[in-house]
Description:
The protein is α/β, with parallel strands linked by helices. It has a domain at 227-335: Magnesium chelatase subunit I, C-Terminal domain (Helicase, Ruva Protein, domain 3). It has helices at residues 3-26, 33-45, 59-68, 86-89, 126-129, 131-138, 173-176, 190-200, 214-226, 231-242, 253-258, 265-281, 289-300, 308-312, 317-327; strands at residues 48-52, 70-71, 74-78, 90-96, 102-108, 115-119, 140-143, 146-149, 155-160, 179-184, 212-213, 259-261, 305-306. Strand 7 and strand 8 form a beta hairpin. Helix 2 packs across helix 12 (265-281), helix 12 packs across helix 13 (289-300) and helix 13 runs antiparallel to helix 15 (317-327). The two termini are 39 Å apart.
Amino acid sequence: xxxxxxxxxxxxxFRKEFQALAAEIGKVIVGHQEIIDGVLTSLFVGGHCxxxxxxxxxxxxxxxxxxxxxxxxxxxxxxxxxxxxxxxxGTNMVMETPSGERQxxxxxxPIFAHIVLADEINRATPKTQSALLEAMQERGVTVGGRxxxxxxxxxxxxxxxxxxxxxxxxxxxxxxxxxxxxxxxNYSTLEELIEILDRTTQNVTPKAERVMxxxxxxxxxxxxxxxxxxxxxxxxxxxxxxxxxxxxxxAAPTTDQYVRFGSSPRGAQAILLVSKVRALxxxxxxxxxxxxxxxxxxxxxxxxxxxxxxxxxxxxxxxIVTEILEHVPQEKPES
Length: 335
């Protein structure tokens, strides 16, 4: 009987610390509350995050501010066409010992940090982009036949510019699937823009204070995974993902018309984990259908590959996900 109040108390504390961390970021970042919540959700789930938006909207500043509010190691990699894999993961270098002998010693790259900002990731070549794949999936990198483990918590936050396509390389589908969520950063409102001017054109520069360390984050990740998802909720999440597969029994009409490939099982995993964080923030220790519906767009928008007709008609994956959510019944259909 005593375990239940303890879990409830942990859930309340998680919500307080989540809000405290969001408030520190809010000292620097004006608005974009949904984006801040999405980035923090990725942090507490343990998944990587892709932010897309035109230049100047604060994507890089948001991630840097997050690192300032956390007692974690942070590194930034500016992706360019001439960047090489060794510039990210590191390389073996010949070092001379005090006795005069020469030996190979591994020199870690910027990937060896808790939070890695991959800025404008679509500007690097596919060869360099793929250097992140092992780190993102296995939490380690292999150099010279030796595996080097990355320290947890490990998180890749990547940004990309959707309007400048010249000199860019779209991320391969296998890498996109490694990102837990894809967040769309939009323009600020009039009130937010005025607030940005007030904060950035005066003598006082706002700064986030550190409020959390690695041990706290790892503990909250354990709590998130303890949140209960009832069988009917899991069934609904699975049917939503299967509805992204063209020609499947669960496919929505929009899927058959515009989608070439649907989401992998990682999409279902992402939806359920994000839903668990949403449940905790709502003061519940169980996932609801509405949590799944809110989690689906950021978890699926980058996992749908459009066919020729979809690209020709400029259909967005967000529109397809919205129509899938309208198509899939919340109650399990009777067989």
